[in-house]
Design brief:
The complex is a heterodimer of chains A (420) and B (470). Chain A is built from 13 helices and twelve strands. Chain A is of the alpha/beta class. In chain B, the strands form five sheets. Chain B has an eight-stranded parallel beta sheet with strand order 10-9-8-7-6-3-12-11. In chain B, strands 13-15-14 form a three-stranded mixed beta sheet, sandwiched between helices. Chain B is globular and about 80 Å long. Classes of the chains: A alpha/beta (420), B alpha/beta (470). Chains A and B meet through α2, α10, α12 and α13 of A and β4, α7, α8, α9 and α10 of B.
Chain lengths: 420, 470
C-alpha cells in the first residue's frame, strides 16, 4: 500500500511549507514517522496531510481490509410524545353561524412541532393573510407596483389580495386612525371595515393603528359593525385598555389577537388576564412579535419555539395558535435599500430580488418555529411561503412540479444555457 | 455531552483551585465547561501525568453528541457538527452551517477562476463582523477524470477555501483528490454502489467523507461500515428532495437523524448532516433562474433551521447569498449573548470638536449598524449610546426608554459638552418626535437625522455643518 519515499522527498515537502526545522519528529526504521506529540509544537495540518499522502502512511486498519459487505443495520428513532395540544381556533363565520364568509379558516390543534408529521400529523396547514391599509402608505419599491392601483380603496385592495394573490384571509390595518397620522374617527374606520367585509368573502383580520390610546375605541367600533363575522381583532396589548377590546370581541362574536413583545412571561400574563375576563380559549390567537431576518429574527424564532415547546409540554397559558407579522421583514434595510451603505460589502445586486426573499425567509423560519398564520405583503413571497408550508404540511400542492428528480443527479447537472 | 451538571465535571478536575484557567475555583471552571464556554485544555494541571486517566475520561464525557468534522486546512478551514442540543435556547448551536457553492468541470477556465474568486472574496457586514462563505463544491459533470483533476487544480490555485469534491465515480474522485490531497477536502460521496472504492480512497488519503442515501437504514449501514473501518470524519447526506411530498420526507429525515444522534444517542448516525438545496435547480432551473434561486434559498432556510451542518448551493447572486448567510448568523448566534452594549460616548474615527454628534440606542444590533455605517463611510464623529435597556430606537421611543430626559442624562453623565463646540445633537429619524422636548430639556440644538443610519453620508451633504449654531 505505502509508496516508496525518500528522505529527499520529505525534505522537499518540508521546504514547500517553509519548514526549516522540525522538533519532535521521530523517524523509526523506514516507514513510521511521528509528528509533534508534545504540547506547544504546532505542525500545520496541511503539512501533516502533505506528508501523509506523500508517503501513504495511512495503512488500512486490519478490520477495514476484512470488510467485504456492509454492516447490516436498521435505523430507528423514538417518536416525541407531548402532553399538550394547541387550541384549535376558527376565524370567519358562514351564514350557518351568523356570518357571511364563504369559507372559515381553522388553525392550531397541533400535538407536535410544526411539520413533525412523523410524530403526529399536523391538523391544519398555516394560512396567509395578505395586508391592506385604509390609506395609501409608503411601500418598498418591490411591493408598491402590485398595489399602486388600489391604494386609495381598501375594498378594491382587499379584492385584489384574494383574486390575484390567492390570500386565505385579508388584514385591514386601520392605520389612518392614529392621531399622529390622520386621526380618522372610529366611526369612519368602522365603515372601512364594512367595505372590506362586503368586498371579500374570506375571513378578515381587523388591525388598529397600534396607538394604545386610540385602538380600544377603533377596534370596539369595528367589532360592532362586523358582528357575527368572527374576525380576528388585532390586537390586545398590556399597555392599553385590553379589557375594552376583550369585551368588544366577546360581545360581537370575534377572535382576539393577544400581542406581546418578545417576552414569554408577558404573553402568559396577558393571556391569563384574558381568561379572567372570560374570553373563551377557542377565541384566542397570540402574536409574540416578529422581528426581521438580520434584525432580531433570532429572538423572534427562539421566543416562538420556546412558547410552542412549553405549550406542548403542557403550559396551557401558551397553547394557542401563533400569528406572525411577516411584513415586518421589510424593515430590514437589505430588503429595500439600493446599495449597501457599507463600503467593504460585496455588491448587493438589485433590491427588487432581495426584498421578497427577506419576507420568505422570515416567514418560513417562524413557520418552522411554530407560526400558524402569516400576515404578508409581497404576492410572490406570500405564494412561496404558502406553497412550501403546504408541502411540508403534506398537502398536494396545485401546480407543484410533476417533474421527478433523482436526488443525487445534481452532481452531474449541466447548467446548460443558464447564466445564473 | 454526557455530563449533566458542573458537579459531575468537577469530580474529574484536580480540585486545587489554582486559578491557572482564569477562574477562581475548579467548580466555576466546571460550570463553564458545561456551557462550552471554556475548553478542557485550559486546565493545565489536568494534563500532568498523574491526571492522565481522568483527563482522558473527561474529554470523552465532554465530547459533543454530534461528531465535529474539520474540512480544509489553514485559516479558512471549517468545523462542522459538534452539536449537543435540539433547540437553540437549550444552550446554543456551535458550529454554524457551512455554505459551499458549486463550480463544475465543464466551465471555461477563466469563467471558473472568476467564479471561485467571487465565492472566496464575498463578504457582507453584520453586527460587528464580516460574513463570509465557507467552501467550494467542485462537481464532475463531464465524467472525465482528467477534466475533473484539471478543474480541481485550477480551483485550488485560486482559493484557500475548503473544497468538496463531488462525484460518485471513484476513479474520477481519486484523480481529483490527488491534486489536493494536502487540503483535507470533503469527499462527496460514497453510496450503496461505490462505497468499497470510496472507503479505500478515504482511508488511504485520510480525508473526510460524505455518505449518501435517502434510505436511512442504508445510511446507517454505510456509517456503521465506515466507522468500523476506522473512518470517523463522516458527513451524512440523507438526500434533499426539492419539492412536494419529497420535501416533507426530506424534512423528516433531517429531524429524525439528528434526534437519533442527540436524543437517542445512536452513535452510528451522530455525524454532521449535509443538505443540497441546489437540487431546486433540477426542478425549476430549466424555466426561470430567479424562481430556481428562490426555491434554493427556501430549501437552505429549512436546512439552516433544521439541522443541516453543511449545504451545497448553486446561485451566487447577491439576493441568494445575503439572506442565506444572514439566517445562519441569526440561528447560530449564541442566545446567551447580551442584547445590549455598554452605554457611553464613543468616538468614530478621529473626531474633533467640530465633528457631528449622533445618538443611538444600546441595542447591540442597532449600535453595531450605526457604528459601522459611520466608520465605513469615514464619518469622523461622536456617538452617544443611550441606555435604552437594550431596546432599538423605535421600541425605546414607544416604550419610554428613550426620552428627552434620558437623552439629557446621557449628555450630562458622558460630559459630551467637553467634546464638541457646536452644541448640536443629531437624533435618529425614528426618534424625530422627541426633538422639541429634547431641545427644551437639554438646551442643545437638535437636528433630525435619517431613519436609516446607512443614509447618514448623504444626509451630511445637506445638513452638516449645521446652518445655525447657537
Amino acid at each position: 500500500m505505502a509508496k516508496k519515499i525518500t528522505l529527499a522527498d520529505i525534505a522537499s515537502i518540508l521546504e514547500k511549507y517553509d519548514v526549516v526545522e522540525l522538533e519532535d519528529v521521530k523517524i523509526k526504521g523506514d516507514v513510521e514517522i511521528e509528528l509533534g506529540t508534545s504540547a506547544g509544537v504546532a505542525i500545520p495540518p496541511s503539512l501533516i496531510h502533505a506528508l501523509q499522502s506523500a508517503i501513504g502512511v495511512q495503512e488500512l486498519p486490519e478490520e477495514a481490509k476484512r470488510i467485504g459487505d456492509l454492516v447490516e443495520s436498521k435505523f430507528e428513532v423514538a417518536k416525541a410524545e407531548w402532553i399538550g395540544q394547541i387550541e384549535e381556533v376558527t376565524i370567519g363565520a358562514t351564514s350557518a353561524d351568523g356570518g357571511t364568509r364563504d369559507k372559515p379558516v381553522t388553525i392550531g390543534g397541533e400535538k407536535s412541532l410544526p411539520f413533525y408529521n412523523f410524530d403526529c400529523q399536523m391538523p391544519y396547514p398555516p394560512v396567509i393573510s395578505v395586508d391592506c391599509f385604509d390609506m395609501p402608505i409608503p411601500l418598498a419599491k418591490a411591493v408598491r407596483g402590485y398595489y399602486a392601483d388600489v391604494m386609495e380603496d381598501p375594498g378594491e385592495w382587499a379584492k385584489k389580495n384574494v383574486r390575484e394573490f390567492g390570500a386565505d384571509m385579508v388584514t385591514i390595518h386601520l392605520i389612518s386612525t392614529d392621531p399622529t397620522i390622520k386621526d380618522t374617527s372610529a366611526r369612519e374606520a368602522a365603515k372601512t371595515v364594512e367595505e372590506v367585509l362586503q368586498a371579500v368573502k374570506v375571513p378578515i383580520v381587523i388591525g388598529g393603528s397600534g396607538n394604545p390610546d386610540k385602538d380600544p375605541a377603533v377596534l370596539e367600533a369595528a367589532a360592532e359593525v362586523a358582528e357575527g363575522e368572527r374576525c380576528l381583532i388585532a390586537s390586545a396589548n398590556l399597555n392599553m385598555d385590553y379589557e375594552r377590546i376583550a369585551k368588544a370581541t366577546m360581545d360581537h362574536g370575534h377572535v382576539i389577537l393577544s400581542w406581546t413583545q418578545l417576552d414569554i412571561n408577558a404573553q402568559k400574563t396577558l393571556n391569563r388576564y384574558l381568561f379572567k375576563l372570560g374570553v373563551p380559549r377557542e377565541d384566542i390567537v397570540i402574536d409574540p412579535t416578529t422581528a426581521a431576518l438580520g434584525y432580531g429574527l433570532d429572538y423572534a424564532f427562539t421566543n416562538i419555539e420556546r412558547m410552542r415547546i412549553a405549550a406542548l409540554k403542557g403550559d396551557a397559558d401558551l397553547a394557542f395558535p401563533i400569528s406572525c407579522g411577516i411584513t415586518n421583514a421589510w424593515g430590514a434595510r437589505e430588503a429595500w435599500m439600493k446599495d449597501s451603505p457599507i463600503r467593504e460589502d460585496s455588491d448587493w445586486g438589485p433590491s427588487a430580488y432581495r426584498g421578497p426573499l427577506y419576507e420568505i425567509v422570515t416567514g418560513l423560519t417562524l413557520g418552522i418555529a411554530g407560526g400558524d398564520m402569516f400576515m404578508m405583503m409581497h404576492p410572490k413571497a406570500a405564494d412561496a411561503v404558502k406553497r412550501v408550508t403546504q408541502m411540508l404540511f403534506g398537502a398536494d400542492v396545485e401546480g407543484d412540479k410533476a417533474k421527478k428528480v433523482e436526488m443525487k443527479d445534481w452532481v452531474t447537472w449541466d447548467v446548460g444555457g443558464l447564466t445564473k | 455531552m454526557k455530563l449533566s451538571s458542573p458537579m459531575e465535571i468537577w469530580e474529574y478536575l484536580p480540585g486545587t483551585n489554582c486559578e491557572e484557567c482564569g477562574e477562581k475555583t475548579c467548580l466555576a471552571f466546571a460550570s463553564l465547561l458545561k456551557e462550552r464556554q471554556k475548553k478542557l485544555e485550559e486546565c493545565k494541571p489536568l494534563f500532568e501525568p498523574e491526571y492522565a486517566e481522568k483527563s482522558k475520561k473527561l474529554a470523552e464525557l465532554l465530547a459533543p453528541e454530534v461528531r465535529e468534522v474539520e474540512i480544509g486546512v489553514g485559516a479558512r478551514a471549517s468545523k462542522i457538527g459538534g452539536e449537543d442540543i435540539m433547540y437553540r435556547h437549550e444552550l446554543t448551536f456551535f458550529n454554524r452551517t457551512a455554505l459551499a457553492y458549486d463550480v463544475w468541470d465543464t466551465m471555461e477556465e477563466e469563467e471558473l477562476r472568476e467564479r471561485v474568486r467571487k465565492i472566496t472574496n464575498w463578504r457582507k457586514f453584520y453586527v460587528g463582523e464580516s460574513l463570509r462563505l465557507d467552501a467550494i463544491a467542485i462537481r464532475s459533470v463531464s465524467g472525465d477524470a482528467k477534466a475533473f483533476a484539471g478543474c480541481v487544480k485550477h480551483v485550488a490555485e485560486e482559493t484557500d477555501l475548503p473544497l468538496v469534491l463531488c462525484s460518485f465515480d471513484a476513479k474520477v474522485m481519486e484523480e481529483g483528490l490527488n491534486e489536493v490531497s494536502d487540503r483535507n477536502p470533503l469527499i462527496y460521496a460514497a453510496d450503496e454502489t461505490n462505497w468499497k472504492e470510496i472507503l479505500e480512497i478515504v482511508t488511504r488519503y485520510n480525508v473526510p467523507v460524505t455518505l449518501f442515501s435517502p434510505d436511512l437504514d442504508m445510511l446507517n449501514s454505510l456509517a456503521s461500515t465506515f466507522s468500523s473501518a476506522g473512518v470517523e470524519d463522516i458527513v451524512l447526506d440523507p438526500g434533499t428532495y426539492p419539492t412536494g411530498e419529497g420535501l416533507a420526507d426530506t424534512f423528516s429525515r433531517f429531524v429524525r437523524l439528528r434526534r437519533a444522534g442527540i436524543v437517542d444517542e445512536n452513535k452510528s448516525v451522530a455525524y454532521p448532516l449535509m443538505s443540497v438545496p441546489m437540487t431546486a435547480w433540477m426542478v425549476h432551473g430549466d424555466e426561470d433562474a430567479l424562481d430556481a434561486s428562490y426555491w434554493e434559498t427556501i430549501l437552505a432556510t429549512i436546512g439552516t433551521v433544521k439541522y443541516a451542518d453543511m449545504m451545497i448551493l448553486h446561485s451566487i447572486e447577491p439576493h441568494s447569498l445575503i439572506p442565506e448567510r444572514t439566517l445562519i448568523a441569526n440561528i447560530y448566534t449564541d442566545p446567551r449573548r447580551p442584547v445590549s452594549v455598554d452605554p457611553g460616548l464613543r468616538e468614530v474615527g478621529t473626531p474633533t470638536e467640530q465633528s457631528p454628534l449622533f445618538l443611538t440606542s444600546n441595542f447591540a444590533l442597532t449600535y453595531y449598524t450605526v457604528e459601522s455605517d459611520l466608520s465605513s463611510n469615514k464619518v469622523d464623529s461622536y456617538l452617544v449610546v443611550v441606555d435604552t435597556d437594550g431596546l432599538g430606537v423605535e421600541a425605546a421611543v414607544a416604550g419610554g426608554q428613550l426620552t428627552a430626559e434620558t437623552i439629557k442624562d446621557a449628555l450630562e453623565s458622558y460630559e459630551v459638552e467637553n467634546k464638541v463646540k457646536h452644541k448640536t445633537i443629531v437624533l435618529p429619524g425614528l426618534a424625530a418626535r422627541l426633538s422639541g422636548e429634547t431641545e427644551d430639556a437639554t438646551g442643545w440644538n437638535v437636528l433630525v437625522g435619517p431613519r436609516d443610519s446607512g443614509r447618514i453620508p448623504g444626509w451630511m451633504d445637506d445638513n452638516w455643518p449645521p446652518k445655525t449654531v447657537s
